[in-house]
Fold:
Amino acid sequence: MKRSITTIVAVCMLVLSGVTALMAADTKLPEQTLYYGGDIITMEGGKPHYVEAVMVLEGKVIYVGKKADAVNNYAGETEEVNLKGKTMMPGLIEPRLLAAVFSSDRTDALPSFTIKKGNAADFTILEENPFKVDKKHIKDIEVAGVVFGGEPKMRKTKLIGGDKDTHGCIGSAGYRWCAKTNRCERPWELAKKEKFEKSAEAFDAFCGNKN
Structure:
């Protein structure tokens, strides 16, 4: 009888351990978020340094580097955020601040945030890369959204064609009215063709637009 009780207890313990293992295997790992598909600028060393992907978990950066490595090395449910060509920078930065900094050619004056492992996942997502556009255009770069504490908050995308001006020019597609050519033009394309400075002021002066 004593042996039977011992056997039953052993079997119960074995079953219990098996159930515990199954429960552990079925438990979902904490959800993490992978950002990729755009210009991700880490500002490593105070300079623009680019990476393919950033992985975030519980409000912190847990990986910075190649997307493939992030996918292969970090198990668990992952929400993927495709930046679709937008630019992600560390910290919460307003484009007018960027314009002021870039006008002095001092990128080291940017707020001392970096995207690196262990840092808070606070980013600004811009429609354009301030390092790749004319300095005079930086203040006009739109903020597509922010990531605060690891949570993305994106602005609603404007519908192409939903912002025509009185001349029928579609601003969201980059067009502005030019009185001289009597048509809608993309300023940077016209500047290249007619060889004038790539700025709003130069475009208006060439086109004879009245403010």
